[in-house]
Design goal:
The protein is of the alpha+beta class. Among the domains are: 32-97, 3-methyladenine DNA Glycosylase II, Chain A, domain 3; 104-162, 2-Layer Sandwich (Alpha-Beta Plaits). Helices cover 32% and strands 9% of the residues. Helix 2 crosses helix 3. [4Fe-4S] cluster 2 binds at residues 113, 116, 119, 153. One of its GO terms (biological process) is electron transport chain.
Length: 187
């Protein structure tokens, strides 16, 4: 019996090594255009664009199936970057898909939370932790601000809190190392 288990374990190890090697050796690279588009998107995975996440939306843009102005979290800045990358004309954010908002993160009022786990199930990035019938909390650095946890909460204990600008949350918006145009010296 023990010998049979050892043989099966050995076979499993060898098979795992072969499959691992094959996965590395024969890795199929994705479409470079899709990867570039996806890198511009905010990675909120919110679905406001009409697609189940940023990668499917990037694929749809690359295939010409979606407009570049469907991502509220990416906002005007994201649309401009996509227009530049793709050589397309800039379009304002589509009102059909929402409005641009300041970056925010979910906050759970732990005294009101009933531990239903519906928010955990709705979170596309696993930023909410907790257990059934126990309070939940949001791991703020992981939260993308997608707001998908708001609707399923039966006690409305989740609110969106604006994320303040810090060194770790600040975005490089200007081409010369973050210096705003009005503060640059004339050359």
């Amino acid at each position: 019996m023990l010998t049979a288990l050892l043989i099966m374990a050995g076979i499993a190890v060898v098979l795992g090594a072969v499959l691992g090697y094959a996965a590395i050796r024969f890795k199929v690279e994705g479409d470079p255009l899709v990867e570039k588009i996806d890198a511009i998107l905010p990675q909120t995975q919110c679905g406001q664009c009409g697609y189940p996440g940023c990668k499917p939306y990037a694929q749809a843009i690359a295939n010409g199936e979606a407009d570049i102005n469907q991502c509220p979290p990416g906002g005007e800045e994201g649309i401009r970057k996509l227009a530049d990358l793709l050589g397309r004309e800039f379009k304002s954010l589509s009102e059909e898909h929402g409005v641009e908002k300041p970056k925010s993160a979910a906050f759970i009022d732990e005294h009101t939370c009933i531990g239903c786990t519906l928010c955990i199930q709705a979170c596309p990035v696993d930023a909410i932790v907790g257990a059934a019938k126990q309070m939940h909390t949001v791991v703020a650095p992981l939260c993308t601000g997608c707001e998908l946890c708001l609707a399923p909460c039966p006690v409305d204990c989740i609110t969106m809190v604006p994320v303040g600008e810090t060194v770790s949350t600040w975005k490089w918006r200007y081409p010369v190392i973050g210096i705003r145009p009005e503060t640059r010296r004339a050359a």
